[in-house]
Amino acid sequence: MRGIKAEILGADMIVFVTPLYYYGMSAQLKIVIDRFCAFNGEIQRKHMNSALISVAWNADSWTFEALEAHYKTLVRYLNFVDCGMILGKGCGTPDMTARSRYMAEAYGLGKSLINQ
Predict the structure, then answer these.
(1) Cα–Cα dist 14/44, whole Å
(2) Under CATH, which architecture does the 2-114 domain have?
């Protein structure tokens, strides 16, 4: 975690990327976020930019509600500046994702960050 902590504190932005697992983030990402507890104050003082990128097989309108709420809570608690979310519904395979509109949306999000 020391290396991850150094990378986070040395960055201007953190992008959370995860497939949707049971309407939340992956355990691998969650365990890293849980370790933020040891240096929350340092993260909060940075006012870092953040974004969320996720995909899910499910395409129901409510698919990302829980993950979106969790992300927004992290943004508020850690004093992040939210730069956007790409929430790819109906992207259960790499091929489905490649053919979706979400690839262009992710590109647009990245491009918009260049001017910030």
Answers:
(1) 13
(2) 3-Layer(aba) Sandwich (3.40)
